[in-house]
Amino acid sequence: MNRVFISSTCYDLLDIRAELESEFRDLGLFPVLSDSCTSDFIPDPTKDSIDSCLSNLCTCQYVVVILDHRYGPSLAKSGYEDISATHYEYKTAQEKGIPCFVYVRDRLMTDLDLFDKSGVTRWVSKEHDQRLFQVIKDHQRLKKDQSKNWLERFRDSVHLKQLIRRDFRRVSDRAQIDRLIREDRLPLITLSANFSSTTHHPGGQSPVSLKITAVRRDAYRINVEVPNSLKIPHGLLAAGKDFHFRTMVEYPGGSFAVNIVYHSPEGHQITDTWSCTHLDRDNSIRCNLTSKSVKASESTVITILDA
What we know:
This protein is of the alpha/beta class. It has two domains: 3-167, 3-Layer(aba) Sandwich (Rossmann fold), CATH 3.40.50; 186-306, Immunoglobulin-like (Sandwich), CATH 2.60.40. The protein is built from seven helices and 14 strands. It is elongated.
């Protein structure tokens, strides 16, 4: 499960937080927001609100931090460190080694530059909220044991969601493929092979018959790559049906690879690589699936099996 904790001040960013919850759900991920009863946040009645937030954060695979113009009230009066809840969540994510994606309003970054040069701010109106600058500087400071210290500037909620989609594209693709596998919505095919004849041909080759079977769901736009042959195309292989073809391979004791590329009804491209080995003892061929990958998008290929 890919849980994403959304950390930010709440009351001033209600709309952005609601939009991000919807955006992450569209990406096939599980957003966790303390102020949303429709998110995957799990309240703990035995803990206060801060500890409950941290408990949820520690169950997440990713943390998204949004910094705008408010730092948030200090937690010191509640017995915690003299920092805000967002700052505390950010520090906890860093300490736990949870990947942290930090997005900063462009006007806040402009204020940081202005403040460093002249001590003046325009976007951040209160002195207390200038503590945001230290959060940014702490994050940007490169540490040997810290894998990522980058941040992204955003203009508005539309731009922010574009950045989220870009940064979480591969995570989203993997999550959606995993869901298709769990729901048995990807085609599943098998390969079997046997020698058509044990008669030797010039060059020590013999004909082999191969059979592809669609075990689950229809497979579309099939292309088979076999030794000593061009790609063998086949338009549709309905579930429960077979597709037969022949090729020439080294005999005896030879092995060869078969690559099968096909598509799901939703358009996902699946590539299976099979290793086919001649068994001397009974003159048969053993076919083992050695790799399977799914092209989830133009830029993402998800490896499901890599033996």
